[in-house]
Request: fold
Amino acid sequence: MENRSLSVVAGLIALWAAAWPARAAEVVGSPEQQAAWQQRLDKADALKAEGKARQDEADRRLREQDEACLQKVLVNDCRNQARQAHLATTREARHLELEGKNLARQVKTEQVAERQRQQQAEAPRRAADLQARQQETAATRQAAEDKAAATRADKAQKAVDGQRRKAAEAEKLRRKQAEHEARVAAKMEKAERRKAKAAAGQ
Reply:
């Protein structure tokens, strides 16, 4: 169970470390502060690399000494001495690696604190920017709605005007037809009278 807890913690640390470059890029800080952090991170990397190199060298030496001990009379005593030397070197190597990791962790903690400080300092400005953007968006939306309403009203007025114009044109046409029919009827009546007069005169 304890191993599972350790693996979960290790997984979380790995995820945090993987996400760190993206977070570190957000940190603004002063150029001097960035340079100091980078210098300390470089030192941390160097310490970790030195620790790993010493560990690799100690492992290589232990293998060589273990083979050399087989040629000696007191094999176990030789091997014990080799292991003691390996253990001492391993402790030094781990100490260097831990020192490097602690230094890197301190820098990252400072960077997170600086980013949080900057975010808190910028919070009022960001809130004001957000409010200004919201007001601008609301004004733009209102202007668009007003324009759409004006367009709808204009279309409705044009439709009403079009109906009135059509009604007026239809009335004008009806009057023309009525006048034409009246003229035709009058001419026909006149022609009928002439015909009747002519027929009566014979």
In short: The two ends are 140 Å apart (CA to CA). The longest helix spans residues 75-201. The chain has two domains: 32-120, 137-202. Confidence is low (pLDDT under 50) at residues 19-25.
